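yo

u said u wanted the structure for the complex thing, so here. seqs first:
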Amino acid sequence: MNDQRLIQEFIRVEEQLREIRIYVRMIRWSGPCTPISEWVIAKTCPLGTSSVVIEEDIMKLLVDQRFFGVCEECHDRKPSGRMHGTTLCQSCASQNHGVVY
Ligand SMILES: [Zn+2]
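structre next:
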């Protein structure tokens, strides 16, 4: 998944009354096949923050391991909920290492 699509699907910016909130959609598992997604506030900015700064903040979130990770085997950036640890994604873990979920 390229970064642009990742941003579209997993990051949302909302202008509230008092601040601008950047949300990240986190994926949790309530069973092997039951992902639950939940929008969490990753960062808030004062109202009037320029879109350039917001873009920079979004790029910082993409490299933040709390939210996303890059798989060393397929080199794909994925939401942390789809990672198996910090350096391997779940697809590679099950395809290349026999991990069963
Ligand atoms: Zn992978």
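The chain has three helices and five strands. The chain has one domain: 3-97.
cya
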